[in-house]
What we know:
By secondary structure, this protein is α+β, with helices and mostly antiparallel strands.
Amino acid sequence: MSEGYLSQDEIDALLQGSDSMSDSSFFSASEPLSENEKNTFKSMIQATVESQSSNLSMITGKSVILGAPTVEVRSKQQFVGELPNEIVETKVDFTDGAKGEHIFLLNTDFSTRLASFIMGQEKIELNEAALSGLAEALSNIAGATATSFGNQIGATVMITPADCKKILKSKIRFPEGENFVKVEYPISIEGEKPSTLIEMFQLSMVKQMTSNQAGDGMATVSASKQGGAHESQMPNLQDLSQMNMGGMFGGQQGGDPMNNLVSTPSVQSVQFPNLQGGAPAHEQGNIGLLMDVFMEMTVELGRTKKLIKEILGIGEGTIIELDKLAGEPVDILVNHKLIAKGEVVVIDENFGVRVTEIVSPMDRMADLK
């Protein structure tokens, strides 16, 4: 909107309805966050810290602690001047329920130490394998963040594949718009010097999500007003208005507000979840969307290398010696990635494999080399 007039894009969005209105592009990327929006987003981020720390601890095999985040709106030019000359950038954008660009930044020294724990090696360089390990680790915590955001705004939020690079600060791919939202966490790994993890969020996406949160708050308030009206049985005109608003946001569409005077609302006891073990919500999240996807599973008995002249000499009756001993576990691969080991069994007249070991995340990362 400029000088009090709606642009053609904004008019089109209004005419097309709520779906277009929910797109992050509708929110101006140049408008700064209000204090209320900033606090709302900080609360949303704070809800992800525990799962992010847990995921990093599992991947590295070390105790990783993320501290309380700080949230602020920054300009690109101002921010670049505060960074070291070289930086490790990991771009993992959000799609669907909340669309926007999203980037992690880590200094190279801390990235090297983090990658060494992920790869299970003491001294490594930030080569392609190490960057792939960092990409998987940061993709995991971005996925946990997306799931948490989705639960909070009532939508399915997905992420793009992670793209991790060691670059000069002049090559950083900032989120679209003049300003962006910077989230900064103190991060420490057991026995290592503390550092800082920075996330950059597209401003328009943050405004979209905090707007959705505000909408949920209105629905909650109107619902509580309805409960108060039932207790007195004789609401005043303001209560009638609130009851009608409750029908718009939290109940049935339309209807005569006077009907709310004679209907008895359903009152139930609060149901608390059982305090039992199990996967937390952020680990279940969007995985249900992938349950029907087929993946190729392969059992590998062993491998060997041969010269071309030896391969050309293979014929019927040739015995090929493999790199595994008799009785040694066979490898179980999914999409050519090692996930488990097992032993060969016979089921009726068919071969099968009994799983004896699940490969640890660190071993899976070492397989990327």
